[in-house]
């Protein structure tokens, strides 16, 4: 089996990260894997304790929060694997997960990235992800296949090309990263893995789903309360993704769609939900895209307050 580096990022979730490390140690032959944990500017540095607790794990510390992409990218210099498995710390692996994903990359050199099927940890029979549809570049919308469906094996024979991987669990071929580059760090949160898929596809690789590999994600199936951070980055990065990836005609149609439909709809929803405090963040997200280029590292959000 090819060398695999398992990379996960911790931010103020030490008990969650420990549960993940215990999970992978129980379900996988950890001696055959390189496991890397990046502590992404947590308030308390647990690495001195973890070094003794998990002697087979490589720990990296960043003194500041680099975001999802930045935290994962920090591990690239230390990763030795031919394949890199980027996986959220709030997941629980199942037996054979890594091997099944490796088999796809071994057998199909054209595959640059592959994700497993994902179920919700709190509702373990419920699917979170069994693939994505392609992006509609006129509206910047696509669909998550299988989400909220009871898993009865209905997608287990759909191994193959999908629109996008899922950022919670994605195995990436090193040569694909070398050709396409790492994840863009200026997204900070949301859309960075979708943007990465587009760049890896342009580099000549395919994006696959392997639904016979399974992982559980501790993200709740219930939609949580909106926050300024989530609303800002979801809107800012949706526009940024389009600026970086959409054809010219699609950009024009998307801009009209966003201005005429999305902005008024969002404001009405904020009012109905008694969340008018989110309206300024919508306009800040739009303004960021008007004044910054697509590679700007200025987040426009007070990251130190996260």
Structural features:
2 domains; single chain; 37% helix; Glycosyltransferase family 2 protein; 9 helices; ten-stranded mixed beta sheet; alpha/beta; transmembrane helix; Spore Coat Polysaccharide Biosynthesis Protein SpsA, Chain A; 306 residues
Task: Produce the secondary structure layout.
Blueprint: E1 4-10, H1 14-27, E2 33-40, H2 47-53, E3 57-62, H3 67-74, E4 83-87, E5 91-93, H4 97-107, E6 111-120, E7 127-129, E8 160-161, E9 169-173, H5 174-180, H6 192-202, E10 206-217, H7 228-245, H8 248-272, H9 279-291
Parallel strand pairs: 1-2, 1-4, 2-3, 6-10
Antiparallel strand pairs: 4-9, 5-10, 6-7, 6-9, 8-10
Helix pairs in contact: 5-6, 6-7, 7-9
InterPro entries: Glyco_trans_2-like, Nucleotide-diphossugar_trans
GO molecular function: glycosyltransferase activity
Protein name: Glycosyltransferase family 2 protein
């Amino acid at each position: 089996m090819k060398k695999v580096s398992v990379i996960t990022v911790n931010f103020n979730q030490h008990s969650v990260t420990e549960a993940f490390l215990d999970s992978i140690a129980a379900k996988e032959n950890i001696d055959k894997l390189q496991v890397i944990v990046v502590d992404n500017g947590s308030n308390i540095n647990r690495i001195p304790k973890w070094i003794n607790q998990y002697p087979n794990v490589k720990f990296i510390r960043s003194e500041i929060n680099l975001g999802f992409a930045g935290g994962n990218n920090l591990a690239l210099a230390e990763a030795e694997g031919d394949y890199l498995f980027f996986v959220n710390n709030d997941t629980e692996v199942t037996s054979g997960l890594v091997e099944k994903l490796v088999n796809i990359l071994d057998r199909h050199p054209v595959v640059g990235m592959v994700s497993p099927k994902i179920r919700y940890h709190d509702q373990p029979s419920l699917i979170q992800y069994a693939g994505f549809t392609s992006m509609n570049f006129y509206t910047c919308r696509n669909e998550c296949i299988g989400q909220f469906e009871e898993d009865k094996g209905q997608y287990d024979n759909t191994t193959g090309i999908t629109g996008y991987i899922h950022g919670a669990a994605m195995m990436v071929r090193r040569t694909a990263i070398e050709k396409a580059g790492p994840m863009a760090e200026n997204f900070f949160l949301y859309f960075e893995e979708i943007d990465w898929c587009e760049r890896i596809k342009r580099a000549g690789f395919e994006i696959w789903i392997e639904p016979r590999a399974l992982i559980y994600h501790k993200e709740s199936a219930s939609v949580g309360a909106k926050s300024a951070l989530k609303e800002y980055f979801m809107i800012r990065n949706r526009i940024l993704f389009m600026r970086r990836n959409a054809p010219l005609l699609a950009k024009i149609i998307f801009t009209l769609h966003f201005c005429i439909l999305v902005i008024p709809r969002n404001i009405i929803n904020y009012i109905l939900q008694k969340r008018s405090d989110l309206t300024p963040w919508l306009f800040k997200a739009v303004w960021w895209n008007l004044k910054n280029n697509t590679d700007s590292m200025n987040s426009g959000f007070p990251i130190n307050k996260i």
